[in-house]
Design goal:
This protein has about 260 residues and is of the alpha+beta class. Helix content is about 25%, strand content about 25%. It binds one DNA strand of 15 nucleotides through loops.
DNA sequence: ATGGTTGTTTAACAA
């Protein structure tokens, strides 16, 4: 089984890029974040035509939005809302074989890394706290996958400069601590770092605000795939589609894939 | 230290 996660930054603007990825990588499951569209305007036809007939959409107008595309039907689906909001940031699907899949878009958190000064940062921290509390109540022995744009680069080599980003939202100690708590509460293993050593630089996002993203290479690893221990033995490979950052009308995030032998 | 870009929706706002 191949599973890909990708922050698409408007699925309507980039439906062609999604089709290209589906055709070239042929994942069984594709999780999208920042679809930025209500469900009724989601471009389902081009994806259906490629064999992805099952789409669990959870969208709203203009902002946020997550979706899970699959070749095979989902036995069940659900959504969650956090922080007393109606944001579309969390879609859940059961996969054939009883695997529980979570597609999550964590709030970016604004620019100032202080919850008292910046309500967006406070929202991000609370969102992580609520996920932690909720996942702590789940059975640790089950098969589960959590993916998405978690908007935090936890490791030193998940950013281009650990030192220069310590006070930049996405890599501050408080965020790293809360992401770690969420991961531990769910009993999750980082499936990508399972294959890529932690002393090796690895990024999934490069800002639009650089003249030449590849030359400056000031990236961050914001997009993640985690699995519970029951699935670790089935992990086969990991891949970050760095080249997709150079496609026409590229998203600022690139797809991340895990392959399983189940 | 600052500004740099993109998408949604059309003047800010979010990232």
């Amino acid at each position: 089984m191949r599973l890909i996660t990708w922050n698409i930054n408007s699925v309507r603007l980039r439906a062609e890029n999604v089709c290209r990825l589906l055709a070239e990588a042929r994942p069984d499951i594709l999780c999208l974040q920042e679809t930025k569209t209500p469900n009724e305007l989601f471009p389902r036809d081009p994806f259906h035509a490629l064999g992805y007939e099952h789409i669990h959409m959870h969208g709203m107008k203009g902002y946020n939005g997550v979706a899970i595309l699959a070749k095979h039907p989902f036995p069940s689906v659900a959504t969650r809302a956090w922080c007393d909001r109606r944001d579309c940031r969390h879609a859940i699907a059961e996969l054939p074989g009883g695997i529980e899949l979570h597609n999550i878009y964590v709030p970016a958190g604004g620019d100032i890394p202080d919850p008292d000064e910046n309500p967006k940062f406070a929202h991000k921290l609370r969102f992580l706290d609520e996920l932690t509390e909720w996942f702590a109540t789940h059975d640790r022995a089950r098969s589960a996958i959590a993916v998405g744009d978690l908007n935090i680069a936890p490791l030193e080599h998940d950013v281009w400069s650990h030192k220069q980003l310590l006070k930049v939202v996405s890599h501050t100690p408080i965020e790293v601590e809360k992401l770690g708590a969420f991961q531990a509460a769910g009993g999750f293993v980082d499936a990508v770092r399972y294959f890529v050593p932690s002393d090796e630089k690895l990024y999934t996002w490069w800002s639009y605000r650089n003249r030449d993203w590849a030359a400056s290479d000031r990236g961050r690893r914001l997009d993640h795939i985690w699995v519970t221990p029951a699935l670790v033995d089935g992990l086969k490979s990991a891949r970050v589609f760095r080249e997709v950052r150079d496609w026409d009308k590229a998203s600022d995030h690139v797809p991340v894939m895990i392959e399983f032998d189940l």
